[in-house]
Structures
1.
Amino acid sequence: MFGLPADWSLDVPERYFTLESYDGGVARWCPGCGDFAVLSAVQRICRDEQIPPEKLAMISGIGCSSRFPHYMHAYGFHGLHGRALPVACGVKSRRPDLDVWVATGDGDCCSIGAAHWLHAARYNMDMVVMIFDNSIYGLTKKQTSPTTPMGVGTNTHPDGAYLPPLDVARTTLGFPNVSFVARTVDWNPPHLAATLEAAYHHKGTSFVHILQRCPTYTPNVFDELRQNSDLTLLLTHPDGVRADDAVRRMYENQREHDPSDLAAAHALADRSEKLAIGLLYRNPAAPRLDTFSVRGLDATREQKLAALERELDRFAV
Ligand SMILES: Cc1ncc(C[n+]2csc(CCOP(=O)(O)OP(=O)(O)O)c2C)c(N)n1
Ligand code: SF4
């Protein structure tokens, strides 16, 4: 036929996933909410990587951003406020074959869930943790969060927060055994996607600090950053987040930063002068608890019973 050899065959994959394959329904966020951009980026990465939906687990706590699992056609767990990370660690322990993604807000992760944030960094299990930082508690309608800038009035602090905010990326860099910390912004979709892609390919817990617009409750917090690109510093490096020409053209300030340099990462994460975006730190050699927690997963029922008997015998009186 048309000069093709008789034994020619088209190598068509048995399953091909399109963006629709990951579509979990109409997202109910306010118009202009930055969460939409993150959802699109994640769906594109899943399509590009051809991840079967049944191999994806989207885990969240409570908050607007935590509604994320509902909008992905994948396994999902929309759990308790602040508890996304322990659930994700549990899933990864017993189902190492699943790609685990966590959606957690600045309130969910850095306030009520802060203890889990530290320990998840230390456990360093293979997963992507997206911290949606809109500087406010959105779902409960505008209470101060640990990242609310001073001077921004909220329902709990009408005259503005009393204390300076914490920075998500900078704080994460201080945790023991942390292996990946990056920062990006929802209003730069190519950079957001490249950052999440780098996070997905890192073996360990990849924390991605995402500055996320909440036009309803913190409409102006990122105005300066969005209107004046001089306030952003684009981090570049062959081992860092890919920055294509379009992204490079957006920012005059660029710096090559070696992501293995933790001291430099700490200094760059400081936002007092500029907002550094890109990969701040990566340590592929950090030990991972999920390489140990999988032990015994392939044990037979008989082996498990025998192990249980042995344990119980130790306590016999
Ligand atoms: C144990 C518990 N405490 C408080 C709440 C109320 N609550 C629900 S979401 C939320 C904060 C959400 O803020 P954030 O995590 O930043 O997410 P956002 O809505 O801004 O995306 C709070 C305080 C709750 N559901 N459970
Ligand atoms: S309240 Fe803010 S964070 Fe929540 S859906 Fe609306 S814009 Fe998004």
Note: Residues 29-30, 33, 35, 64, 134, 138, 214-217 surround iron/sulfur cluster (ligand 2) (CB under 6 Å).
2.
Amino acid sequence: MSTETQPAEKTKGLGFANKDGHYRRQVSQFRNAISSKPGAEFPPDKDRYHLYVSLACPWAHRVLITRKLKGLEDLITLNVVDWYMDEDGWKFNPEVPGCTPDTVNNAERIREIYFKVNPEYDGRFTVPLLFDKKQGKIVSNESAEIIRFLFTEMDSLIPEKYHVDYYPEKLRPEIDAVNEWIYNDINNGVYKSGFATTQEAYDQNVYQLFKSLDRVEKILGEHKYLVGDTLTEADIRLFTTIVRFDPVYVMHFKCNLGMIRHDYPNIHRWLRDLYWDIPAFKDTTNFEHIKKHYMISHLKQNPYQIVAAGPKENILPKDK
Ligand SMILES: N[C@@H](CCC(=O)N[C@@H](CS)C(=O)NCC(=O)O)C(=O)O
């Protein structure tokens, strides 16, 4: 993936597309891992790791789901930023329901934590951010990697019922294969459609997005989950996009060739099974933060910052 964003847009502001009209997500810069290997720089530890998230952000949401699924809530402390992101990025605003102050670094903004760790940092100030309280270092700001090491590397500290690996060895090739097109076409596809600034860039992404949703629909017509009949990382990664689809992406990102609830019965069944049956999915989903973040922060998409009333229900009950 290209990192060539325009300099002025690299660390500041909410204009995300490049000059050619295409949105390209930057490559994350902190890529360490918690590891149970002897001598690891970030070993598993009970009171050491801290997570910064936005409840609006689908990438942070993956980590929140994993933290709860793995029974790590007491071991990895958490701070939540305001859903409103302005041109200086995420900020802490404990007055807002569901938000907290920064209880570890006492920062007002996420950007301060990046600069504290690396004064030369020149990337975007993204969440999720996993922080090592003992060394004052950032472990990782890449959700795809954070969830991987949380699946296994903290197991020595948690009860056996949580020793479930959502990226099991024998399913890896299949999980990797679906992750790839789902990331490009769906997880990132909604952003590439919504942040496009030319008709060509939008067209290129929106049709591909729905083609890949059709592909998922077919898989979920044949299996309970994306990879066979067990819950895996692939489901966690897709869920955070699909749960935002009808309430936000259909209208706000112009992903309106269909809605999950009306046009994708198998995806709709899968979404509601996860949400209503597994607390890690429902309890980490905050529709107020999700809707307000996108519709009030993205001034280019929604200059009057009016939050849309619908859909009537953010997610339907299982029997509707
Ligand atoms: N590759 C990162 C992407 C994270 C990301 O793009 N987060 C967004 C929120 S949804 C963010 O913090 N954006 C702030 C910015 O770009 O200034 C991951 O998956 O962890």
Note: The two ends are 40 Å apart (CA to CA).
3.
Amino acid sequence: MDGQDWTDARVLAHSGDASMKTGLKIYIFAITKDMKNAQAFSSLDGDMLIIPQQGALDIQTELGNLLVRQNEIAVIPRGIRHRVTLPTGQARGYICELFQGHFRLPELGPIGTCSLANVRDFQVPVAAFDGTLQDGRACGNNREWQVVSRLDGHLFSCTQNHTPFDVAAWNGTYYPYKYDLARFCVLGSALYDHPDPSLFTVLTAPSYREPGTGVVDFAIIPPRWNVMENTYWLPYYHRNTMTEVSGPIIYNQDECCVWNKGLEFQPYAATVASAMACHGAPEDAHKKAEEQTTAPKKVSTEGFTVFLLETECPLRVADWAIQQFETNGVATATVHGTKSNL
Ligand SMILES: [Fe+2]
């Protein structure tokens, strides 16, 4: 929204407790401004999975710079300070803040050694020291910086007399990274019926409670070939035990594409389907699917990919989102959820 920056993300839904390191929180951002000069941000609550829907984010982090375009995602670990600017104007998207554990690639099981998201395609920044050389020595700039931190859902700030981006070199296993979703190697049925959408998982955060369950799975339904024969092509209308949050990611980079004009997708729009709530393709899509042939066909070619955040945690939806749904209906937000006081 006009006048908002990276520190103005709004909570869409949450479960658990950051102070107990359980559960997650899902934010939506729709921003038009760079963060202030000499201002940095970090979440002390959890790792941030950033899912741009539209626009690009230039993210300066303590461990280097990440330019994250639409159809790319980024992960910034808990406590890593960063500053977000907008190289192409406004940006919209989603943040999944994970209170427990870390995001990782899913176990591939019988798939074998590769496909889905491959390790080789994740991009990690190199150090980018934001200071100057004085008499042959590296010095952090000496202006005053404001560091904004989110702790237990609340923002705090402090100042310091030097840049937080003062890392000249680093190594280790705790770092931000990005991934181009166009590199996701989609697998699917080559004959009939539908594998579970967990086959589209890009990143997962396993639960400690029970093997095979996840605090959250991040999955995408991107362009792909559909080659199933003599079977129904749409996902089944269904209920399940996971709670699902979904929304569009625009992969068409052409600014003339209708999706990039900001007219079709409303800011802050998302779908939330609580555990055991019925959901699936609408009736008109069902009728269309019944009439079409099942010859091999490239599907989801409209210019946007649907992402899914599937969590075993029952999500509480923010009051503002419930009110938007009650006021504007499905055009702005589709919510099959639990009201809460956020
Ligand atoms: Fe579902």
Note: The chain is about 5% helix and 40% strand.
4.
Amino acid sequence: MNKQTLAEFQEHLKKSRRIVALVGAGLSVSSGLPTFRGAEGLWKNFNMIDLATPDAFYIDPGLVWQFYSWRRYSALAAKPNRGHLALAKLSNLPQTNFITITQNVDGLSARSGHNSDNLYEIHGSLFTLKCTSFMCNYIEYNNFKAPLTPALRGTEHEFLKSSLDSESPEFSPVKQMKDSELPQCPVCKSSGTQSILRPGVVWFGESLPMQELNEIDDFLESEEGPVDLILVIGTSGTVYPANSYVDRVRLQGGKVAIFNTDIDESEIEGKDGVWGFKGDAAELLPVVLEPLIGEVKQP
Ligand SMILES: [Zn+2]
């Protein structure tokens, strides 16, 4: 880590009153979670991107639930890392006005002890459940139950347990599931109708959650003053919506710190008030944030 960059950053950090962290997949990689498009983007020979759509769920909710049940198990097997813990500590400081905007659905920030009042999961979460009925707005946050229903038992294994040692292991078969075997909405049930729940993630073709976006806007345009600093963590600061938040903070006179294994020089070079920290965000964040949060222990 460049000493001068660190010193400049920390000098600014110590006088920052209002801070935003923008988090992407890179933060979860060192918790052992591959990025969504990693591993060729396949699950049991299905293209993951094809399964993450409203159409796929409409056609075969049982198939999509088996995929999401597997993703829930994978995320639960991972642990929040020291980067998640550093942000959690920052979120609980009384003197700092701070929000985290995460693009990750893995629930690791929520599980790290991050203050839930200032955590925005703008792509939703694998651990949020929503009713599929248009008449019903039931939503449940941080449901970490696994399996969610008896029929979803076994979905933690992508391959047949008996074939794991062989050179070409066989996929455990996808089950045909009836709606009654899938997670059910308790509110609809109590009024005598049956509605299934869906994963509370933002699928391809869906819009980002309006309420969360509005609350983030309120924070960015607060009368309490401009945002002093935005931390761009494990994500490219050049893709929407990350770039729009970075631009808005810069327009207010705020500074930018990028933490990523791969940083495009054009994001930093010749730009005043933009710092780049190249490396594993899980290792960098506890070091650079230390003046505010103190020591972060190993999880
Ligand atoms: Zn319902």
Note: Residues 120 and 212 are 6 Å apart (CA to CA).
